[in-house]
Write a structure and sequence with these properties.
Its EC number is 4.1.2.4. The protein has three helices and three strands; from the N terminus they run βαβαβα. The chain is α/β, with parallel strands linked by helices. The mean pLDDT is 87.
């Protein structure tokens, strides 16, 4: 919790590890952010990063944030997805419409 005091964001991983973002880690981190906010009133952002390659996965992280932290966190200054390979899948999904 102390580290959150000087943080604007926390993120799941750098994307360079063997195991990157997981839904379980996202839930734990979002609960920590929520608890920190309840104690301090300071909003800390969440960034899911590493291994997110599909629109479906990105939407799952969005749902986790919304469920645990609420819709207030669904804005760029508080919620981000770091996934360089995600753009191709988003373009593909948009092309289906």
């Amino acid at each position: 919790m102390r580290r959150l005091l000087s943080s604007d964001f926390i993120k799941t991983s750098t994307g360079k590890e063997k195991v990157n973002a997981t839904y379980e880690a996202a839930c734990v981190m979002c609960h920590a952010i929520k608890k920190f906010y309840s104690f301090t009133g300071k909003k800390v952002g969440f960034k899911a990063a590493g291994g997110i390659r599909s629109t479906r996965e990105a939407l799952a992280y969005q749902a986790i944030v919304e469920e645990i932290l609420g819709t207030d966190w669904l804005e760029p200054k508080l919620f981000r997805i770091g996934a360089s390979s995600l753009l191709d899948d988003i373009v593909k999904e948009l092309g289906k419409r």
